Amino acid sequence: MNHIEGDNELPGYTPRAGSSVAPQNALTSGSEHTISLEDSKGHKWLLLSVKSRAPTSEFWPVFCDGDIISGSVALDILKSESCKAIVVTVTAMTTLIGQEGQYFLVIEKELWTPATALPDGSMTEVLDRKEKKKFPLPPSFTERASPAYINYKIRLNQTLTTDFTFVPITKPELPSPMLQKACKENILCVGPEGDPEGWHILPPVTVTGTLFGAKRGNVDFNLSYARGSAIPLWLTFTGTDEQALDLLANPQAIRSDATSEHAGKHTDNFFVRTTTRAVFWPVKDASTAGKRVLRGEVNLKKTFKQSVVFPRFSVRYHLEVHSFEAVGFVHAPHVSAPLLTQPVDVTSFHATGIVMRSFAPPEYAEQIENFDNSVGLLENGNQRFYHHGGLGIS
Prior knowledge:
Elements: E1 2-9, E2 31-38, E3 44-52, E4 62-64, E5 68-75, E6 87-96, E7 102-110, E8 123-128, E9 131-136, E10 148-156, E11 160-167, H1 177-185, E12 199-201, E13 205-211, E14 215-226, E15 232-238, H2 242-248, E16 256-263, E17 270-277, E18 279-282, E19 291-297, E20 308-310, E21 313-321, E22 329-331, E23 340-344, E24 346-347, H3 362-375, E25 392-393
Parallel strand pairs: 4-11
Antiparallel strand pairs: 1-5, 2-3, 3-5, 6-7, 6-10, 8-9, 10-11, 12-14, 13-14, 13-22, 14-15, 15-19, 16-17, 16-21, 18-19, 20-21, 21-23, 24-25
């Protein structure tokens, strides 16, 4: 029996500015995935084993940037066979429905020694608009109804092939000291007036309309969301018409959604969908004459795919505030587009040492769960690919 081992290093991933990564080669305890070829009598004569972060061998192998692809190739030949070489190949490609797949990563090595390291490299060179450019390796992506896919494979001598999942380690920047303290002590975070460094404060938006068909009203609202977290929100309304303020600052009148945008190379390979909806509730003792304040949050599920921009493929997220749906209030003029749109990055991991939990009151938390169930996030067939813990926002 011939036994050849290889420790093959996957090219690293250069994170976006503000991201932080785990130490290279810091492979956590996982499992070993084995595939084999059998002869006509059921004898396994060629085996490929790969160690990875996957929790059990039932899942595809999982790797993060900087991990070592460690495994073994075993031959158990019962009769003389000619073999010119044993070659391990790591490949990755983007595939658009109705089009031929395009490779953006091909690493090929002959296993002549007990351990052969694959070349290290943080970038891959891809043809983009007729020009070759370097891009960080994108994450694996497969989702039902998506027009595009990103697949990674390990191939042995063109005979044995296994898919594997690649997860770039991206994290948001650390939030402000006050927000870090709130996360660690499991208490509500301070609003943007008390901790301006901890929030993205977006420009105010003016809403104009008529009240009960009798009078016009103008209300300004300002949306803020916390840095480095699962999007806690802070919504402030200001105006001189107290009736209009009360109508619009009603949690039932507000529709704020997080949307995901999946895009392929052509317009017919592009779709946008609502992935989750924000909930809001009044902040005690914060509302005064001419001012109403609501606290809110957006629930990010672990199955959300991380943001990525790559030739022929991208996944982007936006936080949107849509027209208000308040009894007695009509937008004038009519509003069809979102009142406010803010791009956000979804990362593969929380900020270091920071784990956000929901502070929504029970009745509002139930609204989040009901909406997530009704939207149907097309998770079937995806959960087995991702086993890392949680997501972040930057």
